[in-house]
Write a structure and sequence with these properties.
The chain is mainly alpha-helical and 332 residues long. It has 13 helices and 5 strands. The protein folds into 2 domains: 211 residues, Rossmann fold; 92 residues, Tyrosyl-Transfer RNA Synthetase, CATH 1.10.240.10. 54% of the residues lie in helices and 7% in strands. The strands form 2 sheets. It has a 3-stranded parallel β-sheet with strand order 1-2-3. Strand 1, helix 1 and strand 2 form a beta-alpha-beta unit. Helix 4 packs across helix 13. The two termini are 33 Å apart. The model has no long low-confidence stretch (mean pLDDT 96). It binds adenosine monophosphate and tryptophan (TRP). The site of tryptophan (TRP) has 14 residues, from strand 1 and helix 7.
């Protein structure tokens, strides 16, 4: 059975892009794979976090994942910082990856913004830790949204260079699993920007904890153009906001863009937004309810994470012990 690994930062409430680009696929892949899912709190630290807030956000993220259907009994759900193998391997990878490789990472450029001199060095080596997350388990399939493709290519470069430099076939190559019509969900306010849980405008995204009224209001206010929906996918060209809403609908309805336009082409946005809202409410409000139920019982969430970490360690520790031996570190 192939081993799956994926992670999500506890940097806010998960939004629709996280759900359609990643979490929904995490849940679907649980049948037929051995899955390891991680709340990557160490990655969150690459940008300033208020300590008490980070602790709470880690719990909330775990609650959301459980509510989405991550099955922590059959699979593993844990918090990254609880398994030290990740940082041990990340250090080895800091010494394998090249500055030039990291300099090309577009997420660093986006997150560091104009003031690159002032970005944390953690943000710069973020992709090395991500490669370590996956390769600590010798995982081979990684479900993510489209924005993480470049990081996974880098992880493969690291695995190859490690194997080459030490003359071993130790780390496997990783296959990105980027699925569905909504692997890149865009902001509701600007169809050229990706939807993000850290966008300052709450109106730009649907949170997995939004209730029906909040969803309705955000969709009503979502930016569109004045034209009705086209009846063919080609008619969405240079209409990023329209394409985004149709993509969201298609993903939630388990169909494709052509299918949605076949049914709703010709409608004005007023009408289309109503059906989209109804679909979002039907799919997301049960998750919001389930998240609330989990959050009412934080001790159980903590116990789930603790137990997940213990199981993760039994896989990770021997692999990272071996990696350390391979590079010449003395094992006690
Ligand atoms: P993050 O919130 O950055 O930790 O991302 C967690 C997962 O959600 C990753 O697999 C991302 O690729 C995915 N993701 C985040 N934002 C979006 C988006 N707007 N559209 C699709 N996938 C996304
Ligand atoms: N970098 C990913 C993101 O921002 C989160 C992440 C960290 C991750 N480690 C990972 C995703 C390992 C997949 C595998 O979305």
């Amino acid at each position: 059975m192939q081993r799956i690994f994926s992670g999500i930062q506890p940097s806010g409430i998960p939004q629709l892009g996280n759900y359609l680009g990643a979490l929904r696929n995490w849940v679907a892949l649980q049948d037929g794979h051995e899955c390891i899912y991680c709340v990557v709190d160490l990655h969150a630290l690459t940008q300033w976090q208020e300590p008490a807030q980070l602790r709470q956000a880690t719990r909330e993220m775990a609650a959301s994942l459980l509510a989405c259907g991550v099955d922590a009994r059959r699979h593993i759900l844990f918090q990254q910082s609880a398994v030290h193998a990740h940082v041990r391997l990340a250090w080895l990878f800091n010494c394998v990856a090249r500055m030039g490789w990291l300099n090309r990472m577009t997420q660093f450029k986006d997150k560091a913004g104009k003031d690159r001199e002032n970005a944390s060095t953690g943000l710069f080596v973020y992709p090395n830790l991500m490669a370590a997350d996956i390769l600590t388990y010798h995982a081979t399939r990684v479900p993510v949204g489209d924005d993480q493709r470049q990081h996974l290519e880098l992880a493969n470069d690291i695995a190859k260079k490690f194997n080459h430099d030490y003359g071993v076939e130790f780390f496997p190559l990783i296959e990105p699993v980027i699925l569905g019509v909504a692997a890149r969900v865009m902001s509701l306010r600007d169809g050229t920007k990706k939807m993000s849980k850290s966008d300052p405008s709450d109106q730009s995204r649907i949170n997995l904890t939004d209730d029906a009224d909040a969803i309705a209001l955000k969709i009503r206010r979502a930016r569109t153009d004045p034209e009705p929906l086209p009846s063919e996918p080609a008619g969405l060209e240079s209409r990023p906001e329209a394409r985004n809403l149709v993509g969201i609908f298609a993903a939630l309805a388990d169909t494709d863009v052509a299918g949605v336009l076949g049914e709703h082409g010709g409608k004005g946005f007023d009408r289309f937004k109503e059906v989209l809202t109804a679909l979002l409410v039907a799919k997301l409000t049960p998750i919001a309810e389930e998240t609330k139920r989990w959050l009412a019982d934080p001790a159980t969430i903590d116990a789930v994470l603790r137990e997940g970490a213990a199981r993760a360690r039994t896989i990770a520790d021997p692999i990272v012990d071996e990696a350390e031996r391979l590079v010449g570190l003395l094992q006690p």
